[in-house]
Design goal:
266 residues; Uridine Diphospho-n-acetylenolpyruvylglucosamine Reductase, domain 2; Uridine Diphospho-n-acetylenolpyruvylglucosamine Reductase, domain 3; Enolase-like, domain 1; 3 domains; five-stranded antiparallel β-sheet
Length: 266
């Protein structure tokens, strides 16, 4: 077992200060990705800065036309929150289908977003809803935040504090889960925003991670009907390919799940 120091932070400034003093530190909240990675010896940080108990990072509130979700809010809390269930029920439902009960009660929205796993669910929600990622120093639009597979626009020492979601007219998420891991083989969120614009985001499929399917957005802006997607497809060469499914299979699933999401909006 290698040496690692553990520090539990009580405030955001305290967490940032503790992080700055480390040799090779990592922030941790639910630890659903980082801890297994460490156990597999794929990561060996010198210090863990625990942000899971910082009150300012936990909870959900309404702020004008947005819903603010604290970065250390668990998936289970997102799923059960009555405010979110009323204003963005598609996001609450998405959270209720992440992993298993243990993952949902330990894993956090901020941790999932910063990890940017290509099969994670939340990135599709952020992109489709036009969310903003708030950190200890700035705000970043979701369109600019997700850079590539497991890569975001965050600096190494930057800490996510919250995600701000504009309240849409309607939005829903359709997911084809891997039966073992519950990760998305393909997940598609379709949202009609308050200004009437349509956004479609796809996770689990793209070789570069989450992406917007702009061709589908254009088609659905003309008519919000699943039939509007007939004849449209994503490039199979740009899809993930692994033992769970080929690029062609995932490309097909994108169309299937997008239609299911549109039908669920009706």
């Amino acid at each position: 077992m290698y040496d690692v120091s553990y520090r539990r932070a009580g405030t955001v400034p305290g967490a940032v200060e503790t992080f700055s003093q480390g040799d090779d530190p990592k922030y941790v909240a639910g630890g659903q990705t980082l801890i297994p990675t460490m156990k597999a010896r794929l990561a060996a940080p010198s210090e863990l800065v625990d942000v899971s108990r910082i009150e300012d990072l936990i909870g959900i509130c309404e702020d004008g036309d947005r819903v603010i979700v604290g970065a250390s809010t668990t998936h289970a809390a997102v799923h059960a929150d009555p405010l979110l269930g009323r204003l963005i029920p598609g996001l609450a439902a998405l959270a209720g289908n992440i992993g298993d009960p243990m993952v949902r009660h330990r894993g956090t929205m901020g941790g999932s977003v910063v990890n940017n796993d290509p099969s994670a669910d939340y990135p599709a929600a952020l992109l489709a809803l036009g969310a903003t990622v708030r950190t200890d120093r700035r705000d970043v639009a979701a369109d600019d935040f997700f850079v590539d597979m497991f890569e975001t626009d965050l600096e190494e020492d930057e800490l996510i504090t919250a995600i701000a979601f504009p309240v849409p007219k309607r939005a829903t998420y359709a997911k084809f889960p891997n039966p073992a891991s519950r990760y998305a083989m393909v997940g598609v969120m379709v949202a009609e925003l308050a200004d009437g614009s349509i956004r479609v985001a796809v996770t689990g499929a793209g070789s570069s991670g989450v992406f917007r399917w702009r061709e589908a957005e254009t088609a659905l802006a003309a008519t919000m009907d699943a039939a509007a997607l007939d004849g449209l497809s994503v490039d199979a060469d740009e899809m993930l390919e692994d033992l769970h499914g080929s690029g062609e299979y995932r490309a097909h699933l994108v169309g299937v799940m997008a239609k299911r999401a549109v039908n669920a909006l009706s």
